[in-house]
């Protein structure tokens, strides 16, 4: 799918793409100019105001990307994960779903992410396990993060978004 002509968009939308490094995902989202502002605001909130520790947030996002077969998502969030201190063992686990070698918290977040992806909810026992180390706010943010990146991955896959032509801001 071709990227929309950004020059045909209102100035505030062109600025929104530019402010985010003109990454391909943000360019492609402009096919929905009336929904894009809200989507971008939600993305910013998840990355900047999430109560989950950054490493756990990125572990969940990378797992969603792998399960959804969204290489664009995996690429960018592995890079962000490394920047925030997510280890190679956790990144490898996100690819496979195996919890071997992970901390108790990482393993629990990975299991919760997989349960949300497979069953769209957590059982009482799974919720209780997560609440042993997460606050209710953090669990809520985990569920919202997983759901949001399911949406993003569906969009990326449907529109065939790749990293072609990008220079990654996550170095």
Automatic annotation (TrEMBL):
User: What enzyme class is recorded for this protein?
Assistant: lyase
Q: Gene3D superfamilies annotated for this entry?
A: AhpD-like
Give the keywords, sorted: Lyase
Coiled coil (residue ranges): none
Q: Does the keyword Nucleotide-binding apply?
A: no
**One Pfam family cited in the UniProt record for this chain:** CMD
Q: Does the keyword Secreted apply?
A: no
> What InterPro entries does the record point to?
AhpD-like, CMD-like, Mu-type_HTH
Enzyme Commission designation: 4.1.1.44
The record's PROSITE patterns line, in alphabetical order, gives: HTH_MU (PS51702)
Annotated ranges, domain HTH Mu-type: 1-25
MF annotations from Gene Ontology: 4-carboxymuconolactone decarboxylase activity
Instruction: Note the SUPFAM superfamilies from the entry.
Output: AhpD-like
User: Which protein is depicted?
Assistant: 4-carboxymuconolactone decarboxylase
According to its UniProt entry, this protein's organism is Streptomyces rishiriensis
């Amino acid at each position: 799918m071709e990227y929309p002509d950004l020059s045909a968009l209102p100035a505030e939308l062109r600025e929104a793409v530019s402010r985010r490094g003109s990454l391909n995902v943000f360019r492609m989202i402009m096919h929905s100019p009336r929904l894009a502002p809200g989507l971008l605001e939600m993305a910013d909130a998840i990355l900047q105001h999430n109560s989950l520790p950054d490493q756990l947030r990125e572990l969940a996002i990378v797992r969603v990307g792998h399960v959804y077969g969204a290489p664009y998502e995996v690429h960018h969030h592995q890079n962000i994960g490394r920047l925030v201190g997510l280890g190679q063992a956790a990144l490898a686990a996100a690819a496979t779903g195996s919890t071997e070698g992970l901390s108790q918290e990482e393993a629990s977040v990975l299991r919760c992410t997989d349960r949300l992806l497979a069953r769209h909810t957590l059982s009482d026992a799974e919720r209780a396990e997560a609440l042993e180390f997460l606050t209710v706010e953090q669990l809520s943010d985990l569920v919202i993060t997983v759901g949001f990146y399911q949406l993003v991955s569906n969009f990326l896959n449907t529109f065939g978004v790749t990293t072609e032509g990008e220079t990654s801001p996550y170095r």
